[in-house]
Amino acid sequence: xxxxxxALIHVQALTHNLARARACAPDAxxxxxxxxxxxxxxxxxxYEGLRAADGFAxxxxxxxxxxxxxxxxGPILLLEGCFETRDLELCSRLKLWHAVHCEQQIDxxxxxKTHEPHRVFLKLNSGxxxxxxxxxxxxxAWTRLNALPQVDxxxxxxxxxxxxxxxxxxxxxxxxxALFEAATAELPGETTLSNSAATLRHxxxxxxxxxRAGIMSYGGVPDFPEHDPAHWDLRPAMTLRSKIIGVQxxxxxxxxxxxxxxxxxxxxxxxxxxxxxxxxxxxHCATGTPVLVDGQRTRTVGRVSMDMLAVDLTTLKSSGFGxxxxxxxQGPKGSLLPIDxxxxxxxxxxxxxxxxxxxxxxxxxxxxxx
Length: 370
Hints:
The protein is α/β, with parallel strands linked by helices. It is about 25% helix and about 25% strand.
């Protein structure tokens, strides 16, 4: 039989989370962000649950082709735009919209031969200092684009650096919004400002034509641990689960795993789970990382190995060999372990865990029960 580990993709959760994004910004259209292979969920796996979006946003041209092959005829936005001149040919063929964040991309457009002008999203660097034109050069870039016959409509975009961590006011994203409003004043075109964090936290103060529903589409919480999924009414779209394949009885003084990093202080019973860092579970999760066994919360003990990890069964008298283990996501009997909790124990964020799911882990798509 195959190794018992598997990842479940919950289509109904994706649909629910997208509806939550729409409820937060009912007057805006929604980009379902599916970059990084739909945050590790798989574009083909996630498509059914996200197809109620108004458009799909991503980075990779191959992923754009995949979305088209799935039957999507609506807008697709390349969030980082083109990476070389010939990318524009595929943009023309697939009718892709694309970001413009630097002078080189405008130069490529000026040289591009196309029968249909392109829809572009001109990006402002409002303080993230990653991609985008400075406020001082933004209007000159808009003027250049507006003069090109290769360009049809120009939309306006930015990305907030601190929407997930700070208040809206002077120590939050208000200053970045003010920069955007000043740089784009009286310029025509649709706008896109809010990522998941801004959509959840500040939608009452932010108005734009498009929002970008990224991590929230998958049930991740951008401002964890300040808020949890229940606070935002989000549901995990990915579950990683396995089973206990061995049980060990420990005496006081016995150690567990490589480096003997955990030593039992008293008699214990531990279960060995078929999951390790080669499956995408973080190696640096220390003893105490939360885990569910048969839907009951317990903890990991010792170091995570390549293919296995250990969990504490001392208080779970009815659990043992063959018991179901939920590493993150939806467990049995309505139990839940948010991926953000596991990520916090690993010193990272839920985004990374989703994207790090290993190829060797079988994936099952769970469709709604009709």
